[in-house]
Amino acid sequence: MKKILLATTNKGKLHDVKEILKDIDVEILSFLNFKDYPDVEETGLTFLENAELKVKAAFEKYKIPSIGDDSGLEAFQLNGEPGIYSARYAGEDANDEKNNLKLIKKLSEYSEPHTGRFVCAAVYFDGKEFKSAVGEVKGNIIKSPRGKNGFGYDPLFIPNGYDKTMAELSHEEKNRISHRLNAFKELKKYIA
């Protein structure tokens, strides 16, 4: 069975990607399988550049074909914030709760609805060339978190056409519409 390394320590992301790629014959490892994984500084100016940095570092360290992504939420009223800074929006000691509180506070200066989108840039690297895909899902950002199924900004984001947040949807429902699904679905053809 072909091994693929997902360049992340995020268990939620690992679960989502395993679910999306379950119909192809690969064993998905992550940085959680290793003790000395690279700590990749996200110095790119776009989601795609950051994803490339992650997979390149993963492949160089372990010589295993690697996939990685960078994703985040863009609030249109905030000119795309938090964007590539989504995971560290609230600063050095940021966590999901602090990031969400900062976003709610900044959006409170604007009238509703607070439209935005989740974006995911996914990259596959086998040591020879980068293959990439970008997915998105548009929707509205709300003021009070709802739901326990997601991570990150999921409790604040209601996708267009739904009345539930991403964190209120089941994993199966979320994986049918998510930005990560849209990006990784495109990558499947290179991985398989």
Task: Provide structural commentary.
By secondary structure, the protein is of the alpha/beta class. It has a single domain, classed as Maf protein (Alpha-Beta Complex), CATH 3.90.950.10. It is 30% helix and 26% strand. Strands 1, 2, 3, 4, 5, 6 and 7 form a seven-stranded mixed sheet that branches. A hairpin with a 4-residue loop joins strand 5 and strand 6. It is globular, with a radius of gyration of 16 Å. It starts with a strand and ends with a helix. The model has no long low-confidence stretch (mean pLDDT 94).
Features:
single chain, 30% helix, Maf protein, globular, 5 helices, alpha/beta, 192 residues, 7-stranded mixed beta sheet
What is the average per-residue confidence, as pLDDT, rounded to a whole number?
A: 94
**How many strands in all?**
7
Q: What is the CATH domain class? A: Alpha Beta
Helix content: 25-40%
Number of self-contained structural domains? 1
- Which topology does CATH recognise? Maf protein
**Low-confidence region ranges:** none
Number of helices: 5
Q: What's the CATH architecture? A: Alpha-Beta Complex
Return the string of H and E elements: EHEHEEHEEEHH
Task: Briefly characterize the structure.
This protein is an alpha/beta fold and 192 residues long. It has five helices and seven strands; from the N terminus they run E-H-E-H-E-E-H-E-E-E-H-H. It has a single domain (2-191), classed as Alpha-Beta Complex (Maf protein), CATH 3.90.950.
